[in-house]
Structures are given as structure tokens and as C-alpha cells.
Fold this protein.
Amino acid sequence: MTVTAALSFEIRTINPGGLSAIHILSAITLVSAPLVAWRAHNHRVVAHRFTVQILVTGALLVAGFFTFPFARLLGRWLFG
């Protein structure tokens, strides 16, 4: 996950020559993945669980937001 997030900074098709809003998610991943692993390694179960729950919930909401706009294929299927 960390490698994919790091490599995503090289993808600039949406905004040639610059970064787009989706790169914010890559930055969050680069910070959060080591934090989650560190909390698990130090047996901070409650903090680890909370961080993972927030990240998964946020990822599903953000992915849904970017997947279902009306102009995209799944959005057209869902909303007609």
C-alpha cells in the first residue's frame, strides 16, 4: 500500500505537470500506514483499531464519491 501510494505521485494525467486532489489521499496513506503498523507493533490495540476503522471508512466514502459521479460509467448505471 505504501509503495503504491508513493508511486502514485508519478501519475499526472489528470493535471499534467502538477498534482491533483487525489494525491492528498496518497499523502494520507504514506503517513497513516506506518502509524498503523507502529501502533500494532507496540500492542496499542485500541488506537490501532480506531485508526484502521477511520481509514477504511474514509477510503470507502472517498472511493464512492469518486466512483459514482453522474458522468462516470458506474454513476450512469446507478442513476440512469
User: Anything to note?
Assistant: The chain has one domain: 2-11+24-79. The mean pLDDT is 84. Helices lie at 2-7, 23-41, 45-67, 73-79. Residues 45-67 form the longest helix (23 residues).
